[in-house]
Structure formats: C-alpha cells, structure tokens
Amino acid sequence: MISNHSVPTDTVLPHIFYPDVAEAIAWLEKSFGFREHYRYGSPDGSVNGAQMHLENAWIMLKQAQPGQSTPAQLGYGTQSLTVFVDGVDAHFERAKSVGARIVEDLHETEYGERQYGVVDFAGHHWLFSRHVRDVNPREWGAAISEPAVMAPQISPMLAVNDGNAAIDFYQAAFDATVLWRLGGSGHIVAGLSVHGARFFLATESPEYGTRGPDGAGFTTLRIELFVDDPLAVHRRAIAAGAIERSPVVEHRHATTGPSPITRMLQGSVVDPFGHMWLIGKFLE
C-alpha cells in the first residue's frame, strides 16, 4: 500500500474546529504531548489549519468559520475523542500538571480500559485510554449485534543466541521499544515494537526445535521493515553492528493485483544474530 505524507493515517482522521489554530497547536503540545506535522494558512501569516499526532493518533485542526462553532461557544459538546496511549498514567499526570480541566479521574472501567477524561480550552472532550483487560461486552451488560473479530496479525519470533544483546541491538539499530520481557540473564523472551511494527524474540532452544540463523548457518526467512527513510535506517543498523548485504537502491517491478507495486527503495542487512532484514519503502 502506498503511503501519503499529507495523510499518514489509513482509517479515521478527525477534523477539530478551534477559534485560534495557532493557540490550539501550542495548547495541545503542552497539555497532551501532540506533535505538529504541518500547518497552513493565508498570505497574511494567519494559520487556517494544521495536522498533529500523538504516537499513531492523527488529527486535523481547522479554523472555525462563520456558521461553525466550538463546544465552548455552543455551551455543549457534540462528540468525544478517544486516544489510546501506552503510558496513560504519565499522560494523566502531564495534563493535570499544566492545568487541563480533568472531568473524569484516571480509573479502570468495567469494560477493561484504564482512562481519564479531559476538556480542552475550546470545550472539546477527550478520553485518553489504555487497554488493560480483554472483556466480553456481555460481561458488563451490552447486547452484541455482531461479534468483533480481531484482525489477524503475523509477527515474527526471532531465535537469537543472546536475548539481552539482541534487545540492545534492535534498540540501537531500529529504535525498537521493549513492550515486555520474560527471564533474566538466561533464557529471554521479549516483545518489541519498531514504531508500531511488532515482533518477538527468544533465546534459541534446540531442545524445543529453535535455533538462530547464526548457529544454524543459514536463515529460512527474511524480515521486511518498511520505514520512511530507508537510507537512514540502513546506515543506523550498520553503525549498530549489522553487516550490509545490499545497499539501498530503487527497484522497479511489474506486479499485478488489486494493489500493484511498481517502484520501491530497498536495501538489506544481516544482524549480529544472522537474521536478514530488508529495509525499504514503497514509492508507487
């Protein structure tokens, strides 16, 4: 799938009206930790709109025009925005410390969320939340019309000869975040994420049928990592200890299907544990 730098999200992109977009940008940065992607406006320098994000939650800010009002101007709200963040406790403390109006204290709900509610300076209601339990809606009294089906996901489990060293390498090479880990100095199992792309690693266990490529002498899979700047990630991986297998260059393909790919950037490295990583980006 081709990505678009002007519209990074592929699902829902809320457009939120504010009386002063520049003020909203500053407030959302200070209070909620949103980061500005871009802004646009008139030749006189006024800001008419902007795009911001908090982790992978993207929003558009729009200047309220005649006939458009904010909840504060109306005297009531018409919607609530829920943003999912891993560190919801720290996020709550941040919002509270800068004086944001908390309307629902941080708590765990009956439907398995740890969340809090807050109203911004224009009256928009926000919920910041983290999943803490998987709860069937029937358990808290909801009537299910259509069961929710979890989308299938494939995440590689990489066998490595040294779990702690592997974690250190993937953090240095790919800016990976450790989501969880089991074990100490011996057998390690861990879940990691490269800016939302999740994978697992475990210390190799020949008795259970797993051995890393470094020990086996070959690999049976290649891991494709798609990033915004393949050249930078490729260089970073080599600096962290990976061996270059091929440089990042443009490739052209004559593919068929509903989402054909014709051009891409791609290079490859082999990590210190024998796993081959193809680092690339679709161009069209």
Low-confidence stretches: none
Question: How many discrete structural domains?
Answer: 2
Q: Report how far the terminal alpha carbons are from each other.
A: 9 Å
Average pLDDT taken over every residue: 91
Name the beta content range: 35-45%
Helicity level: 10-25%
Tell how many strands the DSSP assignment holds: 16
CATH superfamily of the largest domain: 2,3-Dihydroxybiphenyl 1,2-Dioxygenase, domain 1
* Count, helices: 6
The CATH class name of the largest domain reads: Alpha Beta
The CATH architecture assignment of the largest domain turns out to be: Roll
Shape, per Cα inertia axes? globular
Radius of gyration: 23 Å
What is the succession of H and E elements? EHEEEHEHEEEEHEEEHEHEEE
- Main sheet attributes: strand count, strand direction, barrel closure: 4 strands, mixed
